[in-house]
Write a structure and sequence with these properties.
Helix content is about 15%, strand content about 35%. By secondary structure, it is α+β, with helices and mostly antiparallel strands. Strand 4 and strand 5 form a beta hairpin. The protein is elongated.
């Protein structure tokens, strides 16, 4: 979706609301496609005191696998973004502002990169997920195993022999 920002830069107090859906269901992130519903984008572009700002919210449902226990789970994302739009940039301002070249801003491209870059690096079914036992592979969220209690670090085997005497 492209938005005409020419009059927004010219008229103080001007505001334009927008709402659209962005289909990222075929976008592969960390070797799978977690976004199962279109990303709903809602926001506005506004000129306040000759400063043009863009603010929007992105929300979607996800279906993915936990990076610790490998169980499938559903979750949702709700991300907020706010930018200042400018017609010219100084070299030192490059990271603080979005440069609008011409009269149109491509919101689809901006929103897609924002959503993909702000997804978590690790997907967890819950914050306290215990994961899998590294020895037997049992899901430690469901029950404990005795593998870790019965094994000794080979570097400490000599000390264990001293304790057995």
């Amino acid at each position: 979706m492209k938005i005409d920002v020419r009059r927004l830069f010219e008229l103080e107090g001007e505001r334009e609301d927008f709402s659209f859906e962005l289909d990222l269901s075929q976008t592969e992130i960390w070797s799978h496609k977690p976004l199962v519903t279109p990303v709903k984008i809602e926001g506005f572009v506004q000129n306040r005191s000759s400063i043009v700002t863009l603010a929007y919210n992105a929300s979607a449902d996800m279906h993915t696998f936990c990076d610790r226990c490998l169980n499938e789970f559903d979750s949702s994302i709700n991300l907020n973004f706010e930018y200042t739009l400018v017609k010219e940039l100084q070299d030192s301002d490059a990271q603080e502002y979005i440069l609008v070249e011409g009269d149109f801003l491509d919101l689809g491209e901006l929103c897609e990169s924002d959503v993909v870059l702000n997804l978590p690096l690790k997907f967890l079914c819950r914050p306290d997920c215990k994961g899998l036992c590294p020895v037997c592979g049992k899901n430690l969220n469901l029950s404990d195993c005795d593998c870790l209690n019965s094994q000794t670090d080979p570097r400490l085997a000599a000390l264990k022999k001293l304790l057995e005497k």
